[in-house]
């Protein structure tokens, strides 16, 4: 294969003949256009051009090789012919982000997890911010996740020896320095070129566990290879593919590479409507694409749609037997939202459940995981299924303070997952940002446990929390930052006379 000039590539800029450059290689994707899960429009936007920058966050390495016949890679572009105009001109947005990055506050000014959100908003592209920060529909559940913790109060005990505090624990048999893990969040490279590897490194250095997403931007192998030491435990989040052979391959590969737990996502048979994400994608795709007048893209799901069409909506309880037959890894259901389903999972002998509503990104008006925890523990207790070290209960959604985690542990959870704050932390500061976030949680944990009178996690008891207001859905604590990030159409398109970011 010889070198291909940029001028030659540029000629193939339409649906009749469509070439794109990715990482210096020229691909003929003409025949692939109708098959592209994200629609042909988005490819045609880069027809005859270098698509690497847009391609990378959404496609793990190897995607092109796996989906295109070998002969569609035509060769390498001649770097000498890449004209200045071919290199994408920096947009106003990119210039502003670069300036903001130069003026990033020193890391030690970030004093809690909310602070990373504020900084990340300044350094993330609009598309990345929309994908990371959005929730479903009116984002009521997304805000409720955090608000629910504000309705639980402590009943601290006094005169207990709290000179030594120990908040280490064990998740599915793996040691963790904190009752906290990094939950799975897709498309890590939207925020930082090293994507999920930032999380791997920080988790390894701080001794907590990372859950690797099926839809990571980095390849699974890259994330596993980024482990700080051989024994660093990792979990894997699974979206089950309609093509079970593909899923089986993923599971076997995860087990071979030493993954310690399989978290099967059960709350996303169809992706929720995240309107902030949809709006920005609508602008992005709609305004600039020339595709011969054909409009074949369902714009309704933004970045999410493009990557999730393979998820099998027919997945049901019967499939769990099959899942168990292909792995020895402990299986946990991620996205359980009622005691009935939690009891069923326990009775089936699964290893646990994550009480979660996907960070408020799926069913709006789903209850918070922490509220569901109360009824789940009660129902399991009644059936003699709690406590049970072989069936662990995890909670995620809106966890931002160690006090949130302590409330969950007192109520019976083993640990809490945290999603967005870690994304924001590395988008702004790389792995050191995530480490800082974890260290802040450790400091909060130590202080709060001392003040509650619980030197170890085992000393946290249900009677140390007052949960009477939890299910009232009446907020007494003013809404936190989460209330500030909802965007209505008017604010999203910059209409005047609307206060920005107000509900
Ligand atoms: C940007 C983003 C991407 C996510 N991607 C996935 C995913 O691919 N699979 C999954 O099971 N959950 C996914 N989640 C849900 C998280 O695992 C978790 O349930 C949620 O983020 C917890 O809420 P928090 O962000 O308020 O901490 C995602 C969440 C966010 C914010």
UniProtKB/TrEMBL annotation:
Its EC number is 1.1.2.3. The keyword Iron applies. It is found in: Mitochondrion intermembrane space. It catalyses: (S)-lactate + 2 Fe(III)-[cytochrome c] = 2 Fe(II)-[cytochrome c] + pyruvate + 2 H(+). One of its GO terms (cellular component) is mitochondrial intermembrane space. Residues 1-78 form the Cytochrome b5 heme-binding domain. Residues 105-470 form the FMN hydroxy acid dehydrogenase domain. One of its GO terms (molecular function) is metal ion binding. This is L-lactate dehydrogenase (cytochrome). It comes from Tilletiopsis washingtonensis. The lineage of its organism: Eukaryota, Fungi, Dikarya, Basidiomycota, Ustilaginomycotina.
């Amino acid at each position: 294969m010889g070198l291909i000039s940029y001028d030659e590539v540029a000629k193939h800029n339409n649906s009749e003949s469509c070439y794109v450059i990715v990482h210096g290689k020229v691909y003929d994707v003409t025949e692939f256009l109708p098959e592209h899960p994200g629609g042909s429009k988005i490819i045609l936007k880069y027809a005859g051009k270098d698509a690497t920058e847009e391609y990378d966050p959404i496609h793990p390495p190897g995607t092109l090789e796996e989906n295109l016949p070998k002969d569609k890679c035509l060769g390498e572009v001649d770097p000498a012919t890449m004209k200045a105009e071919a290199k994408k001109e920096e947009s106003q947005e990119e210039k502003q982000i670069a300036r903001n990055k130069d003026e990033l506050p020193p890391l030690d000014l970030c004093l809690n997890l909310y602070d990373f959100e504020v900084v990340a908003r300044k350094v993330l592209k609009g598309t990345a911010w929309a994908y990371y920060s959005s929730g479903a529909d009116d984002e009521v559940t997304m805000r409720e996740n955090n608000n629910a913790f504000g309705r639980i109060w402590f009943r601290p005990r006094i005169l207990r020896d709290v000179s030594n505090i120990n908040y280490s624990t064990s998740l599915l048999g793996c040691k963790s320095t904190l009752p906290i893990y990094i939950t799975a969040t897709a498309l890590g490279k939207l925020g930082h070129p090293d994507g999920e590897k930032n999380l791997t490194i920080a988790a390894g250095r701080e001794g907590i566990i990372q859950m690797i997403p099926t839809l990571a931007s980095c390849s699974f192998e890259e994330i596993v290879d980024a482990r700080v030491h051989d024994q660093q435990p990792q979990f894997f989040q699974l979206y089950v593919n309609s093509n079970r052979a593909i899923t089986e391959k993923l599971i076997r590969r995860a087990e071979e590479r030493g993954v310690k737990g399989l978290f099967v996502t059960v709350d996303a048979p169809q992706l929720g409507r995240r309107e902030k994400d949809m709006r920005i994608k609508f602008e992005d795709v709609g305004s600039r694409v020339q595709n011969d007048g054909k409009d074949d893209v369902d714009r309704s799901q933004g970045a999410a749609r493009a990557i999730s069409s393979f998820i099998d909506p027919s997945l049901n309880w019967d499939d769990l037997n099959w899942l168990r037959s292909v792995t020895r890894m402990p299986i946990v259901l991620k996205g359980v939202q009622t005691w009935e389903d939690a009891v069923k999972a326990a009775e089936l002998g699964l290893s646990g459940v994550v009480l979660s509503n996907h960070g408020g990104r799926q069913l709006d008006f789903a209850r918070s995981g922490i509220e569901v925890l109360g009824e789940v523990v009660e129902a399991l207790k009644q059936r003699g299924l709690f406590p049970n070290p072989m069936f662990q209960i995890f909670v995620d959604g809106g966890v931002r303070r160690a006090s949130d985690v302590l409330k969950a542990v007192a109520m019976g959870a083993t640990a809490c997952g945290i999603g967005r704050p870690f994304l924001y932390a590395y988008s702004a500061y790389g792995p050191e940002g995530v480490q800082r976030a974890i260290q802040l949680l450790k400091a909060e944990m130590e202080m709060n446990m001392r003040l509650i009178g619980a030197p170890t996690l085992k000393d946290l008891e249900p009677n140390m929390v007052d949960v009477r207001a939890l299910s009232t859905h009446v907020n007494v604590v003013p809404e936190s930052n989460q209330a500030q990030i909802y965007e209505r159409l008017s604010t999203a398109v910059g209409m005047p006379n609307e206060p920005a970011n107000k509900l």
